[in-house]
Amino acid sequence: MSNDYDVVILGAGAAGLSAGLYSTRAMLSTLMIESIGPGGQLLITDDIENYPGFREGVKGQTLADEMYNQAERFGAKMEYAEIEGVENLYDDRKLVRTSEGDFTARALIIATGGSHNKLGVPGEDEFGGRGVSYCAVCDGNFFRGQDVVVVGGGDSAMDESFYLTGICNSVTIIHRRDDLRATKVLQDRAFSNPKYKWLWSHVVEEFVGNDVLEAARVKNVKTDEVYDYPTAAAFVYVGFHPNTEAFQEKLEMDELGHIHGDLHMRTNIPKVYVCGDARAESTRQLGAAVGDGITAALAAFHDLSA
Ligand SMILES: Cc1cc2nc3c(=O)[nH]c(=O)nc-3n(C[C@H](O)[C@H](O)[C@H](O)COP(=O)(O)OP(=O)(O)OC[C@H]3O[C@@H](n4cnc5c(N)ncnc54)[C@H](O)[C@@H]3O)c2cc1C
């Protein structure tokens, strides 16, 4: 496989795969570099109900497969590697360092998306894979018929907890406030489902157990009461951070590490673009990531043809 391309796309989630489709259809030689597998967050999403074109919704894995096959059909290449850094960004040939070697390109499209935050409490790492999880779709089945908790009150927490209500005996939402941040339609769906239980104004202080997780040690922030809430599993959805460590000090970013891009997804460096959840001001929605990826690829085509 060649190591030099017109366009290298960093990350193959929805944004990267969309960029790959448009870039190859514009006859630009295109490599996508991805560490886990094509689809990114789609791989940890069960049902997607708000992506246009699917009246009954679509499974994340199904959409990821279709997007990848479509990009590949037009000639996009895939390298499975961990992106370690970028260099020579102002040169004609920009360099990407990866665990599988170096790649060069005339244009780079950064589509590395983001990942869920950890709570940062004792026991979280210790019980990772033994009860503490960040992906209901991946791990929920291990706790079929059991009582589990979900930590968080946003869209991801509500989406994923709803998935868990289909397989678990009960799902307790542990939320530090006394109302949800999630979209109204998701709230309504949760409040009308008898499988939910609610621990309002509670935070998790620790995960406890022996070989496996046995309880979340919670604190009522209104009364300061601390007690162990028994659970077979804890699914954590408490925010999100962009995967942009490899570009620190290289590109202009906001205070959380999202890379600034203009309306055409151009960053502060010519022929370096950003799209999807890694971009500052992103709405962090699938349709938006797809649109960003398309826009970035079209801008790259325009700039490389000038
Ligand atoms: C549980 C959940 C449910 C969701 N539900 C919905 C929904 O119903 N509707 C909706 O519109 N949106 C939903 N979203 C959000 C939507 O999935 C995202 O906005 C969208 O997928 C972001 O795409 P992306 O390509 O920007 O990033 P990502 O999907 O995060 O893809 C980035 C890719 O880059 C790769 N990568 C990152 N760093 C490196 C590195 N250093 N080296 C190599 N590869 C790297 C990652 O492995 C990943 O594959 C949901 C998200 C989650 C987590």
Automatic annotation (TrEMBL):
Binds 1 FAD per subunit. Belongs to the class-II pyridine nucleotide-disulfide oxidoreductase family. The keyword Flavoprotein applies. Its cofactor is FAD. This is Thioredoxin reductase. Residues 5-293 form the FAD/NAD(P)-binding domain. Keywords: Disulfide bond, FAD, Flavoprotein, NADP, Oxidoreductase, Redox-active center. NCBIfam families: TRX_reduct. One of its GO terms (biological process) is removal of superoxide radicals. GO terms for cellular component: cytoplasm. It catalyses: [thioredoxin]-dithiol + NADP(+) = [thioredoxin]-disulfide + NADPH + H(+). SUPFAM superfamilies: FAD/NAD(P)-binding domain. Its EC number is 1.8.1.9. It comes from Geodia barretti. It holds the Pfam family Pyr_redox_2. It comes from the Eukaryota. One of its GO terms (molecular function) is thioredoxin-disulfide reductase (NADPH) activity. It is an enzyme of class 1 (oxidoreductase). Homodimer.
